[in-house]
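Supplementary Data S3. Sequence and C-alpha cells for construct A.
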Amino acid sequence: MNLFNFQFLWIELIAFAVLFVAFAHQLYYYVRYLGGILRQNQRIKKNKISFSTAKPPISVIIAAKDEEENLRDFLPKVLEQNYPEFEVIVINDASSDETNTILDQFKEKYPNLRTTFVPHGTKNISTKKLAITLGIKAAKHDILLFTDADCYPESENWMAQMVRNFNSETDFVLAYGAYLPKNGFLNRLITYDTLFIAMQYLGMAVAGKPYMGVGRNLAYRKEFFFKLKGFSSNLDILSGDDDLLVNKGSTTQNTAVEISKESVTLSEPKKRFKDWYYQKMRHLSSSVRYREITKMRLFAEPFTRGLFYLSLILAIVFGSLITLATAIFLFLARLTAQLIVINKTARLYDKRRYYFLLPVLDILLPLINLYIMTFEKQKKVRWK
C-alpha cells in the first residue's frame, strides 16, 4: 500500500467514525428532546398527566407599540375567551399611530380591558421590558398570561388550556407560539424554524431541562416575577423579556408544558428576509446569557449536525463501496427520524408538514445562526 492510498484509508476511517458518532448523537437528540412533545401527548392520552380543574382569575398582559391594525383584528380574540374571570391589560408603548384610539373604543365594549402606557421619550434600551413590568404591576391577579399584539389565540379555550397546568408548585407554563403559513420560501423557512425551536424548548422542558419560553405564549406567577427581581439582570439588552426570565427561574419542579392544539397562539410572520433576519439577531443575542449547561446542550445539536454532514461528504468522496453504502444508509435513517418526529409534531398542532424541503432547511438554518452569532452584533434600536 503506497502512502497516497494509506492517507485515503485514514480519511475514510476517521470520516466513518465521526459520521457514526454524530449520527448517534443526532438520533439521541431527536428521541430525547425533539420528540418530547410527542411523548407528552402519549402521557396525556394514558392519563399520566393530571390537570387542575380550578379556574382562578388571571391577568393577560400585552405590550403594544404602533399596533393599531393588529389590535383591531386580534385583540377581540383575547377579550372574548371562554374563561370565567380575567382581565386584559394592554400597555401602549409610546405608539405614534392610533393605538390609543383603538384601545379607548374597545374599553367601551369590553369592561375587562384595562390600559396603561409608557410615556413618549422614555430612554430605555428595551421599553418593552418596561411596558411589561408596568402591566405586571397593574395586574390584579397572580397568574399572568402573556402574548403579543400581533398574536391571537387559535382557540377560545386558550386561557383555560394554559391555566389548567397551574398547581401549588407551578411558576411557569410554556406553550407553542406559531406563525401563520403563507406562500413562499421565506415563510416556510420561518414556520420551520419556529416549529423546530418550539420542539426544542418544549421537549427539553418535558425532559426536565427547561431553559426558555416565548413571550407570544407564556404564563407565570406575578409573585415569582418579583421574586426573580423582574428583568433587572438583563436591562442592558434589547431582548430577553421572555427566554432569559424563564432561563433564570425555571426548574424541573416549577415548569409545566402545555401542548394541546387549543393552547397555540398564531402570529403574523415577517414578509421580508431582512426583517426576519433582524428578528433572529435579537433573539439570538440573549442566548449568550443562558445557563452554561443550557448553552452546552444547545451547542451540541448544531455541532454534531455539522459534523454529520461534513463526515458524510468525506465518506462519500473518499470511502469504499461499503463505506459509501453505510453513509447513505445513516443519512436516510436520520432523515427518516426527522420526517417522523417533525411531521408528527406538526400534525399534532395541525400545522404545515415538511418533506423534500427538510434537508435544505436542516442545512441552511444552522448556517444562518452561525453567521449571526459569529459576525453580527445586536443593534441598539427600539423594539417594534
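Construct B, processed identically:
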Amino acid sequence: MPRPSSFLTHFESHVGPQLATLARVQGTFVACEIVGYSVAYSALLHHAHKRGAAFLPDDAHERLEGWAHTALLAEIDRADRIRAVAERGIP
C-alpha cells in the first residue's frame, strides 16, 4: 500500500477537524430547517476546496465526499435527537 502524501496527511490533520466542526454546524442548520441538505453539503465541500481539496489524490477526494455525506447525516440525526428532547421538555 502506498504511503499517503505529506499534503494528504497535512490536509487530514489540519482541515479534517475544521470540517468536522463545520459538519456539526451545518447538520444543526439542516435539522432546524435553516438550510437544506444540499446547501449544507456544498458548504462542507466549499470549505474543503478553499483549503486545497482539489489537490488531493482522486481516491482521497472520493473518500472526502463520502465522509462529508456520512458526517452531515450523523450531525443532522444528533441535532434532531437533541431538538426532540428539548421539545418534549417544553410545556
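Helices lie at 6-31, 37-50, 58-88. DSSP finds three helices and no strands in the chain.
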